[in-house]
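Progress against Task 2.4 (sequence-to-structure conversion) is shown through the following example record, which the project officer requested during the mid-term review.
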Amino acid sequence: MKPREIFLRALHRKPTPRPSTGSATSIVTVDLMEKAGAFFPDVHLDAGKMVRLAAAGFTEIGFDNVMPLFSVCHESAALGCKVDWGHRSQMPVITGRPLRIGDEVKIPKGFLTRPETRVAFEAIAALKKSLGGEAAVVGKVFGPWTLGYHLYGVEEFLMNTILEPDLVKRAISTAKEVTVLFANAQIDAGADALCLGDHATRDLCSPESYRDFLRDVHAELVGRIACPLILHICGDTSDRIGYIRETGVPCFHFDSKVSAKEARRLAGAKLSLMGGTSNFRVIREGTPETIAADVREKLECGIDIIGPECAVPLDAPYANMKMLAAEVKRLTGPRARAGKTDAT
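Structure tokens generated for the chain above:
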């Protein structure tokens, strides 16, 4: 079974010859940029460089998927947010927001042809052509909660969940159309699956707010976006995984602030789990011993796709991700399975 099929089957908890390895968020590090010869900030708006850097996730690190959108800014920039696209050691950031609560989110004409969005389709199509038979090609979109932060500002958006909840719900209702439009255009370009990033983390969003503002919206997105979704939420999400299960999303990309054992218990038998490996203790600071121990823990807990918890630190060594992917295959490959059979 090829890596692509292993990844896509693991998204739905279907039988695979081994657990999958990969990530729905950025795996870019400075030394991976150097290896690929493609650097921030150029890769964010140059499809050729974006493809070169994304492909290294499969060809150099050994993950089962590639994901070419390394920032949180693409659709927000196309909606009018000001963006600092960063540099080799800095991720892009939103620096200016166009709206206030009460203003309507309007999708501008030409949204899908702006450089910030068009680059996604060009890169996905190129990756699909070059790697589509071997590695899964995963796109990325942001949900209406994250778009609310970007368009209105975190403080104003969150404050009005209390002061003006109806206005926030209206903003979410219009922002979700951006998510659907950008998602389905990436599918048309060839994406096998999509990361749905929506930063409803515990320190910014209570479980009741997730239930009241987002659960039904995420369920709607599952129905309207025509490919498997990988929901990514940072932080301790143990208090909302039960609600996430109710959305019908097939896979949840979780943070190490939730233990793998607890995440598996809360997710139940149907919700696939990705990630959970600490970016700091393992991906940046890990040794062969701690990486092997982390992989064994994830295998014992039934994590379906093993990889980083979120966008990796730019100063991490990519060799640790390569080691992690290799360790999954070493412990679960044909030779390891044959050894278990012999032992029994």
